[in-house]
């Protein structure tokens, strides 16, 4: 479904990713964990076209999308819910969601029933349903995070990238975000999740990769990573409360 091979990327002369490889099979939830500065967000940006890789490849559904512009990658079927939310503050919740479906309106993606999908998204995110006519900029941080996730879902994508969906949220909202991720997984949505709460991410994921200083140090089924002594010592000791 989504395959990243020997990917190098960075900013200017600073190389952040040193030849990483990831495989996200259809219908699976894969998580990428690591400390701050390890290169997780850079990985997501390089996959989604926000950053041009210097070498390596990104393939979606056997199509080489390496170096494509972000809008072209979205039209190919990859949705990115970015770190920092990036909602359209002066537009309503509903209009933000409909923008997520824009490639479907212009024929770049299968159109389907956008109105029905909008209602399904609002049912999945009940807080947004209550605020569907509200300006996105007036939402709380947690509500904006849910809006960014729901907007990605509205593309009806083949793969969703979720970059730090729980960042800055109160514990009760973190639980809500993971409830939604679990629901999407049960519906067969293919996802790559970058998450600060490693224990919570591994609890919901099928497979995991650990990124250290721009390289993959270990990977395997999520259940085995949860008991790997090095992973436990480095990433799970302070996250037990989020199991």
TrEMBL record:
Annotated ABC transporter domain residues: 2-238
Native species: Solimicrobium silvestre
Protein name in the entry: ABC-type branched-chain amino acid transport systems ATPase component
A single GO BP: L-amino acid transport
GO MF: ATP binding; ATP hydrolysis activity; branched-chain amino acid transmembrane transporter activity
SMART domains: AAA
Keywords: Amino-acid transport, ATP-binding, Cell membrane, Membrane, Nucleotide-binding, Transport
PROSITE patterns in the record: ABC_TRANSPORTER_1, ABC_TRANSPORTER_2
Family, as annotated: Belongs to the ABC transporter superfamily.
PANTHER family: HIGH-AFFINITY BRANCHED-CHAIN AMINO ACID TRANSPORT ATP-BINDING PROTEIN LIVF (PTHR43820:SF4)
InterPro entries listed in its UniProt record: AAA+_ATPase, ABC_transporter-like_ATP-bd, ABC_transporter-like_CS, BCAA_Transport_ATP-bd_LivF, P-loop_NTPase
